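Our consortium's second objective concerns turning raw sequence data into structural hypotheses that experimental partners can test. To show how far this objective has progressed, the report includes one record in full. It was chosen at random from the queue rather than selected for favorable results. The single chain below, 95 residues long, was entered without modification.
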Amino acid sequence: MKHEITLSNIYNYISGNANMILDRAGMVSQAFKEQIAFRHFKCKDDCVKAGKCKHCGCKLPGRFFTTKSCNNGERFPDIMEDDKWEQYKKDNGIE
């Protein structure tokens, strides 16, 4: 799948890779790390195996680190602030 070059795609590429670097440097919150792990878990049987997102075709794991969900919340929501993530976990029985 060839990606269309759009401002949104450029932004997602840059922000996803920047967030991945910040994570590796230990500069993100525990809630952020949990949300990335949640995305990985939700996609483990298809996207992770293929090495790219089935919705948008972007490479993984970089796409997991973008703040905006490419699937309109169908599989997982946009990255949330820490307090909203805590509430989301409670509301959805996520441990």
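The partners drew two points from this record. The chain has a mean pLDDT of 94. The chain has one domain: 7-92. Both points have been shared with the crystallography group to help prioritize constructs.
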